[in-house]
Specification:
The protein has helices at 6-27, 45-54, 57-75, 78-102, 108-131, 140-164, 167-170. By secondary structure, it is an all-alpha fold.
Length: 173
């Protein structure tokens, strides 16, 4: 893990605040996929991808722990914590590995799509286990199709933010 300077910690804090606000706003939107109400676009994953690109593995893990804790506190729900943690950690590990091992052969948009698919597969598996309803796996094709669209959106937003941020904001070593 790189030395955490005050500038790195401050940037992580700003990213965490932004991700939390985006999560809060997104949680106000009614379910986009009625058959799977736990599925959402996941715009906060733009910030997770940003952390993967500009920070290391451990900063990303800590970022996710805090992001999930803050999200659960804002929603006053242990279910939110469990479902968000399952989805976000599944997505994070896959996105981190893809980015570190295959980028630039694999684009950031592709990394985002795979992360979104894994996130919603993890959430569907968790829902099926907790509710003891294996029939929830029937909705996986719809959930994965939605995940591809959401992953493309998140990936494009991340690429645009990385591309257009001033260099002075991303050089914080």
């Amino acid at each position: 893990m790189k030395r955490l300077s005050a500038r790195r910690i401050a940037l992580l804090g700003v990213l965490l605040a932004a991700a939390s606000i985006v999560f809060l706003v997104e949680s106000l939107v009614p379910p986009l996929l009625p058959v799977a109400p736990y599925v959402k676009i996941g715009l906060a994953n733009c910030f997770v991808l940003f952390v993967i690109i500009y920070f290391g593995f451990w900063e990303g893990v800590v970022f996710l722990f805090v992001k999930n804790a803050v999200s659960a506190l804002w929603s006053f729900s242990a279910f939110v914590l469990v479902f968000n943690a399952a989805g976000s950690f599944a997505a994070f590990f896959v996105m981190y590995l893809l980015y570190r091992l295959l980028f630039p052969k694999v684009s950031i948009v592709a990394v985002s799509v795979v992360g979104a698919v894994f996130s919603n597969i993890a959430r569907t598996c968790l829902a099926s286990l907790l509710m003891e309803t294996p029939s929830l796996y029937v909705q996986l094709p719809f959930v994965c199709a939605f995940s591809v669209l959401a992953g493309i959106l998140v990936g494009v937003l991340t690429v645009l933010s990385v591309k257009h941020l001033p260099e002075r904001l991303t050089k914080f070593k």
